[in-house]
What does this fold into?
Amino acid sequence: MATFLMTGRYSAETIKRISGERTTKGNEIIQQCGGKVLAVYATMGETDLLAIVEFPGVNEAIKASVALNKALGITFSTVPAIRLEDFDKLVGAES
It folds into this structure.
């Protein structure tokens, strides 16, 4: 499984519909796309949400990102992430 960071932004309309049910629905969508939620944080600033999730690959991550937007009205930016130790090995910066 690959790790992805998903940053979400509420619209003015979606803020009116914030609920625990929304969180449950979001988790279900990620699971239906083959993913697993590791952590979700509410944030302040340019984004409103930060989710750390695992998916089998990029296709599943994109599918989930689009499905979340359709179902919840939250716009997500989804990017792959790798552990720093793995990055160092990848680029030959091992000590």
In short: The chain has a mean pLDDT of 92. The radius of gyration is 15 Å. Residues 58-72 form the longest helix (15 residues).
